Amino acid sequence: MSRIVRMAMRPDRASADAGVAIRAAAKLNLSLAVLARRSDGFHDIESLMVPVDLHDIVCVRPARTPGIHLSVRFGGQLAGPRGAALARDVPMDDSNLVVHAVRLLAAEAGIDPSLDIELVKAIPSGAGLGGGSSDAAAVLRAAATAWGIDWPAERLATIGAAIGSDVPWFFAGGPAIARGRGERVEPVPALVPLAAVIACPAVGLSTAAVYGRCTPDAGQRGMALRLAGALAAGGLASALPFMHNALEEPARRLCPDVDLLLAALARAGAVAPRLTGSGSACFALTRTVAEARGLAARVAAKGAAAGGRWPAVFVVRLAQPGRPVAVAV
After folding, report:
1. What is the pLDDT of residues 23-68, one digit of tens each?
2. Cα angle: 81, vertex 58, 131; to 5 degrees
């Protein structure tokens, strides 16, 4: 059984009175190089990714009836009238990554699954923010805890790799470089504390469609590590030349609103705004939360003047090592 409702609620107030609840953080790609096409249909990438404090919540508890039962609530900006356009593309069957993840974990552990899953969505889908993959990583942790499966994170991450290319990254616990198709993860030292503004167009993008139109460039290899070094040294200005997303141009061609949003961010005072992942969300880094709030207000005003083309604008902090991507609430 599945149900989906929209609720005006704070994500951290999900009903977790019985069971295990896990925050599932969104991510930003500070760099994303597409190095080569692979024979298996995927691409070799190299990306410096960082978790941010925009998050979904996954809550699991024992079910009264056999099977996996998923319910979805929308929280945060997605629960409001302006964010309704972003409350999209949340499957209610086995195609939802959280259901797929629980089934794989149960099969690996030899368990007959009986579980209620409540998913509170505050991260827009189809935005390049990793919400679905983060939810999958979070539900693997939550279900393992609920079922008393004491496996290391590395084993759960291996299961996650069968669900989605970037699911293993969400077990890194902080900023990390993803390589291969995304499943090879290398944590990096702490970056300088930063904030960011994220804006999401009303139109989402298909990851496969964007990758299908990109041009691989092996010459971008090593940029992620240089960017991590520059940010660890504390210089946002010195890091900007290494911020690059190879998917930005194909995303602009597929979704004119991405082009409009990046231009609006620049006009609002953003320095080097970028697409995250395969889009359609775009972001800009700032040195402080106060600076981000000012930028967000200007970007939101431009979106309203453009007819609500980007109905949600978020102010977030970038997480650091030791502040886990998915933590109990």
Report:
1. 999 999 999 999 999 998 899 999 999 999 999 999 999 999 999 9
2. 65
- Ranges of H-type helices in the chain: 97-109, 131-146, 153-161, 207-212, 223-232, 236-239, 248-254, 256-267, 289-305
pTM: 0.91
- The Cα 263–Cα 266 span in angstroms is 5
What is the rounded CA–CA span in Å between residue 69 and residue 141? 17
Could you tell me which residues are beta bridge partners of residue 119?
58, 72
Quote the radius of gyration of the chain (alpha carbons, Å).
19
- Alpha-carbon distances of 291 from 156, 190, 254, 294, rounded to whole Å: 38, 21, 31, 5
Structure-block tokens of residue 21: 């609840």
Beta carbons of 287 and 260 less than 8 angstroms apart: no
- Domain architecture of the chain: domains with CATH: 2-187 (3.30.230.10), 195-317 (3.30.70.890)
Tell me the C-alpha distance between 252 and 113, whole Å: 43
| Structural tokens at position 164 | 């989605």
- Local confidence band at 90 (pLDDT 50, 70, 90 cut-offs): confident
Catalytic positions are: 27, 166
Give the pLDDT confidence of 6-15 residue by residue, as tens digits: 333 333 334 4
